[in-house]
Amino acid sequence: MNSQYYEFFCPVKVIAGHAALEHIPYELTGLGGSRPMIITDSRVRQAGLLSPLLTACQEGGLEVVTIYDEVPPDSSTAVVRDIARVYREQDCNAILAVGGGSSIDTGKAVNILVSEGGEDLTQYSGAGILQKPLRPFVVIPTTAGTGSEVTSVAVITDEHKEVKLPFTSSFLLPDAAVIDPRMTLTLPPMITAATGMDALTHAIEAITGLGSNPLSNAYATAAIRMISQHLIAVMDHPRNTEGRLALAQAATMAGIAFSNSMVGLVHSLGHATGAICHLPHGLCMSLYLPYVLEYNLDRIRGPLGELLLPLEGAEVYATTRANERAEASIRAIRKLRDQLHERCDLPRTLHETGRVRRDQLDDIARLALDDGSILFNPREVTLNDTQAILQRAWT
Question: Where, if anywhere, are coiled coils annotated (predicted)?
Fold first, then answer.
């Protein structure tokens, strides 16, 4: 880890609090957006989460032209093309992405097509392809985990090649992220748990990875502390608005952190597992986090040991020997996973998911080696290494 030189960049305006939605018309019209399309999924709409947003838009004089509510959990290039077609037909000029990582990533990808033209999204895959700003784009997350509202990346599945296409550009960053606890109050326990672990993984990999730097560490440490303090409390009291807001802010802070320091092997394994077995991303993060930390332990003992303070608090940190704190941090993460398993059966192993076959592990291992996140892992990784980690994560 080398912090002698680093870059930190986050131009996304964050609008957070109990009346954040009401500020959207002012923000969007200031960006030149007068005819927005809402991009979301059916569960968000059925849960009634669009109602306060639509009310805020109407009272603020903003016309929502159309609502696309069929984004699948694992969005694809075909879905993006279909939404872009509707956007053009309805003469929209802005996007409001409402939902979790899939809806937000879909909104980013749609913004590429409607801004750049054409229907072939694959030609923009990779880093540095986009060369100019895109259309006005505001994000309203309904989960507290992905951090997509403040990241410059998107991942979309190519349904023909059955691979996940990465898109990376500062032009993918939303113009504004609206963090309102009303949008996460009805989040089911399983998704609350998985997305919380997603945010925790973002923060921990931001601190322990090769791209770690002082500014991203500050955001990540604060995120870890807030998740440790509020995740179980929210699981036990889902209508706790202060806790929901804290988790949503933690996810945003973790997103700012990892978008400036990158992630590592947990994400490489998670991306590969999601592509092959179609497991939710947050669940994959929760599954692999302790196993990868154990694999990286000799390279990250110092920073991982310091995370015991935000994970467990001052008393546990002070009474744990310095040379034992890294292992104690891993135990704290395992304890948190056990608590979540007790409350909502969040799987802790690949076998517990019931959706991963043991004969798929070698394919996952090979695919993980091709994932860009692996470049920032603090320890070099071989095929044998990924296979061994997957075997340990099986049971």
Answer: none
